[in-house]
Specification:
Elements (H helix, E strand, L loop, with lengths): L1 H12 L27 H14 L5 H12 L10 H5 L4 H15 L4 H5 L1 E4 L2 E4 L11 H14 L11 E5 L5 H9 L4 E5 L3 H14 L2 H4 L7 H13 L5 E5 L4 H10 L6 E8 L5 E8 L22
Parallel strand pairs: 3-4
Antiparallel strand pairs: 1-2, 5-7, 6-7
Helix pairs in contact: 2-3, 3-5, 7-8
Length: about 300
C-alpha cells in the first residue's frame, strides 16, 4: 500500500530507536511474494514465524501472533475465538498480514506496526519517532502508586497529588497515573513536538466525556462564555480560548451573527501539531451591563440555538 511505502521511506531515513539508522541492518532485504492459498490464522503464524526466525527477527513467534491477531481484530492471538484459528482468511486479510509482516522484516517494532500498545491497562497510540514505553516502566508506575497510597498527607488541596512527568513520550506514565489517581493533577512535558502531539491524542482518548461535551457542534460552552463577555470586559478587553480545531471558523461566524456583543475574532494560533487551537477575541465599544468589579457571578445567558 502506498501509505505504508511512504511511512517506511520516512522511517528508514530517520534515526533509529536506539540511536542507529533503521535501514543499516537490512539493506539487503528484498520483498517476498504473497503467501499462496487461503491459509488460516494458525498456519500463517507458523509461516511468518519461520521466516522471521530465518531472517533473525527478535521474538519471531510473538511478532507473527500479534500481527495476525491485529488483522483479525484482537489484541493477542490467544484471545481470538477458537473458530478463527482454523478459519480460512480472506484475500484482503492475507494481503494486510503480508504488508505488516514485511514491515517487521525491516525490523520495524511491532508497536509501530500495530499503531497501538497496551500499558497499565490503557491502549495507547504509538508512532515513530516517539519512544515506545518499556514493559518494566510499568513497575515505576506501580511504585509511585504504592508511595501515594502510603503517604495520604502528600495529597494536596485539590484532592490529589500534583505530578510532573519530564520526557512524556506517548504519555504512558502520566495517563496511567491519572487513571489510577483521578483526583490528581498531571503536567506532562517533552522537548519533541511529536511526543507532545501523541500525548495529547492519547489524553483525549481517556478524558471525561462530560468535560468534552459541548453540544452537537461543541459550541455550547463557548457561546455561553462569549454571551457573558460584554458584562465582564472593558473596551479593548480580550478573551483567549483553547478550542477544537474545527471551532475557529464556527466562532467567527457566530460572532458575526451577534454584532450586539461587540466582540471580534482578531487572531487564531496553531498548536504544536499545526492545528488551529487558540483564539484571541477582543471587545470594542462601551461596556454593557454591570462593570467587572461589581459583577455578582454567573448569570443565565440566552444563546441562539
Amino acid at each position: 500500500m502506498e501509505c505504508w511505502g511512504r511511512m517506511l521511506r520516512a522511517f528508514l531515513s530517520g534515526p533509529g530507536r536506539r540511536g542507529g539508522t533503521w535501514g543499516s541492518a537490512y539493506s539487503s532485504w528484498r520483498p517476498r511474494r504473497p503467501v499462496p492459498g487461503l491459509l488460516n490464522a494458525t498456519e500463517l503464524v507458523s509461516h511468518w514465524t519461520a521466516i522471521f526466525e530465518k531472517e533473525g527477527i527478535p521474538e519471531a513467534q510473538e511478532s507473527s501472533e500479534y500481527i495476525v491477531a491485529h488483522v483479525l481484530g484482537a489484541k493477542t492471538f490467544q484471545s481470538l475465538r477458537p473458530v478463527l484459528w482454523t478459519q480460512p482468511l480472506t484475500p484482503w486479510q492475507l494481503q494486510y498480514i503480508q504488508e505488516l509482516s514485511s514491515c517487521r522484516l525491516q525490523r520495524m517494532p511491532v508497536q509501530y506496526i500495530l499503531g497501538e500498545w497496551d500499558f497499565q491497562g490503557l491502549s495507547l497510540k504509538m508512532a515513530p519517532p516517539v519512544f515506545i514505553p518499556r514493559p518494566e516502566t510499568e513497575e515505576l508506575v506501580e511504585w509511585v502508586l504504592e508511595e501515594v497510597a502510603q503517604r495520604p498527607h502528600a495529597v494536596g488541596a485539590q484532592g490529589g497529588p500534583l505530578i510532573l512527568e519530564v520526557g512524556c513520550g506517548s504519555g504512558a506514565i502520566s495517563l496511567s497515573l491519572l487513571s489510577q489517581l483521578p483526583q490528581s493533577r498531571v503536567i506532562a512535558v517533552d522537548k519533541g513536538e511529536a511526543s507532545i502531539c501523541l500525548t495529547r491524542e492519547n489524553a483525549q482518548s481517556y478524558e471525561d466525556p462530560a468535560a468534552l461535551d459541548g453540544g452537537e457542534k461543541g459550541m455550547d460552552i463557548i457561546t455561553h462564555i462569549l454571551a457573558l463577555a460584554p458584562r465582564l470586559l472593558k473596551d479593548s478587553g480580550s478573551i483567549f480560548l483553547e478550542v477544537d480545531p474545527r471551532h475557529p471558523e464556527l466562532v467567527d461566524g457566530w460572532l458575526q451573527s451577534r454584532p450586539d456583543l461587540s466582540l471580534h475574532l482578531v487572531a487564531v494560533r496553531k498548536d504544536f501539531c499545526g492545528r488551529p487551537r487558540f483564539l484571541h477575541i477582543r471587545r470594542s465599544g462601551p461596556q454593557r451591563g454591570c462593570p467587572a468589579h461589581a459583577w455578582p457571578g454567573p448569570q443565565p445567558a440566552r444563546v441562539p440555538g
